[in-house]
């Protein structure tokens, strides 16, 4: 069965910049998976396997957010890790705490729970995965890794299908556009 997540795709120029910066860190020596630029995203909620009827209803439920949630600026603030800092299972670009982003994620979670989806209930830590799956070859993470503070405007989010072994691995199957505050 097809697996899905709800997320925010990065603007192409920012994604390419992050991949260029990541190359300087030589993370291929320490991690098994380095997502392609086209796959860089912020996960709002992992869904896993979803039945077609439930997915259709979820699309309708999420469309309601387009009139309630405004576009928002997302700011990357640096580099951090999940797991042991010396052998991190994930190295990621950290994102500045943003109340509207957390509110959006909570709204999405609530809609999924009402549809009885078995979703991940771990605390939401907005981030952009740059490398994952520690290979065990060498300790690479250091305080020398940094990303300049940069921002982009989040205008939409999507439901993505997960397609392992393909590039792109994640394909938007339904996009929800946020309320434009300039009009």
From TrEMBL:
One Pfam entry name: 2_5_RNA_ligase2
Coiled coil: none
Keywords noted in UniProt: Hydrolase
Active-site residues annotated for this sequence: 41, 127
EC main group: hydrolase
Enzymatic reactions: a 3'-end 2',3'-cyclophospho-ribonucleotide-RNA + H2O = a 3'-end 2'-phospho-ribonucleotide-RNA + H(+)
Domain of life: Bacteria
UniProt motif (HXTX 1) ranges: 41-44
EC number(s) given by UniProt: 3.1.4.58
Position of sequence motif HXTX 2: 127-130
Keyword hit for Hydrolase: yes
Alphabetized Gene3D superfamilies for the sequence: Cyclic phosphodiesterase (3.90.1140.10)
Function comment: Hydrolyzes RNA 2',3'-cyclic phosphodiester to an RNA 2'-phosphomonoester.
Assigned protein family: Belongs to the 2H phosphoesterase superfamily. ThpR family.
Alphabetized NCBIfam families for the sequence: 2_5_ligase
Name of the protein this chain belongs to: RNA 2',3'-cyclic phosphodiesterase
Gene from which the chain derives: thpR
